[in-house]
Specification:
heterodimer, A: 229 residues, alpha/beta, six-stranded mixed β-sheet, 8 helices, 6 strands, 39% helix, elongated, disordered N terminus, B: 147 residues, seven-stranded mixed β-sheet, 7 strands
């Protein structure tokens, strides 16, 4: 705390006389050229640095702003899905355009039809099918049929699809595998999303949504195309 | 003391107003929101840069009368505009695409499907059919993020 030297009170007996004689000269020597500001804020800034309160205030508001933004934007995931299109009429020009790479493998398309067990009843309360617990719970409320094969529990269908893209060369197989998902009209949307989530977990990237299948009969041969990249 | 104007209170008030309107806007949009199906995997997307097709159940809080969608009473909105049938849904999608994404091909239109998890697929299928007829190649299915 080194400040301007201040006069100490003089207690000697001759102080009044000396103060009277030299007061004018001593006071003129101690007084600065300008009048010194003696407000509390200036005094505070001299001893404790700049005032941090406004900066802390603004920073806290910005922090709350970003926290609120993150809370609003955070709680959603998005599952990309292709839209099945009617097959385009094959022409020689289009065939030539699509077969530029002679070694390219044709995409493997599988049509998966989802139906509800006991599908005669309309959609109502049923135990939800969860892909994350499919292996243990079985996902027995939803049945899946691959390319018109007999329907099996959705969890088994997921495992068989996942087996196609697992193991060595799985990434190349996943790129060539296309799934056209055709849920029946009475399958709950949460079950469709659960199956779609299971496909994504299994590494299948190209999944398309087709029109609703019949409630009972599985779909036959694919009559729709997924858009090409 | 500095001679410049102290803008700290101004910033303070403006930021509080932004947060206020952010929260109010979120609550207002929740009025017609749907209960999304849970998913533990997916990708983040900018919801504000896509045409949102929302499909809500008939018992969702809304002043719009529900209509028949695949044998199920539901409410369908395209960016907040209600549609009563698939023809209206198609025209709304086309108008919204022209308004929000002028000059962009419909095939590349970013579309987000937000459907209630309790709805049967028959109520959601018209949205996919409308997208297919318009030549839209892909959509994003909105889900609720779960750990």
């Amino acid at each position: 705390m080194s400040g301007t030297p201040r006069a100490q009170p003089d207690t000697t007996p001759s102080a009044p006389a000396r103060r009277a004689a030299g007061s004018t000269a001593a006071h003129a020597a101690r007084r600065p050229a300008r009048l010194r500001r003696r407000d509390a804020l200036h005094h505070h800034s001299l001893h404790f640095g700049p005032n941090m309160t406004p900066m802390v205030d603004v920073v806290m508001v910005i922090l709350v702003f970003f926290m609120a933004s993150a809370a609003f934007l955070g709680p959603e995931w998005f599952l990309p899905s292709l839209i099945a299109q009617p097959p385009a009429p094959a022409s020689p020009a289009s065939k030539a355009a699509t077969s530029t790479d002679p070694f390219a493998l044709a995409p493997v398309q599988k049509v998966i039809t989802l139906t509800r067990r006991g599908a005669a009843s309309p959609a109502g309360p049923s135990p939800p099918f969860s892909s994350s617990t499919a292996a243990s719970a079985g996902g027995a409320s939803v049945l899946a049929s691959i390319d018109g094969a007999p329907a099996v529990p959705a969890a088994e269908a997921l495992q068989s699809i996942t087996a196609l893209v697992a193991g060595p060369g799985g990434s190349a197989a996943a790129e060539k595998l296309e799934i056209l998902l055709r849920p029946a009209g009475n399958v709950a949307w949460r079950d469709v999303i659960a199956f779609r989530e299971g496909l994504k977990r299994g590494g299948v990237t190209r999944v398309g949504m087709g029109p609703a299948a019949a409630d009972r009969a599985p779909a036959g041969a694919p009559d729709l195309d997924l858009p090409r990249r | 003391m500095s001679d410049s104007i102290n803008v700290t209170p101004l910033i303070d008030v403006v930021m509080c107003l932004i947060i206020f309107f952010l929260i109010v806007g979120k609550l207002a949009s929740d009025a017609s929101a749907v209960r999304l199906a849970p998913s533990g995997i997916g990708r983040s997307a900018d919801a504000g840069r896509a045409v949102v097709v929302a499909i809500a159940t008939a018992d969702s809080p809304s002043s719009v009368a529900p209509s028949d969608w695949g044998g199920t009473r539901a409410r369908v909105f395209v960016d907040g505009q209600p549609a009563k049938n698939i023809a209206e849904l198609e025209s709304l999608l086309r108008e919204t695409a022209q308004r929000r994404f002028p000059g962009r091909a419909l095939a590349e239109l970013p579309v987000q499907i937000r459907a209630d998890r309790e709805l049967p697929f028959a109520a959601i299928d018209p949205a996919f059919q409308a997208c297919s007829r318009l030549g839209i190649l892909g959509v994003n299915l909105a889900t609720e993020r779960t750990p």
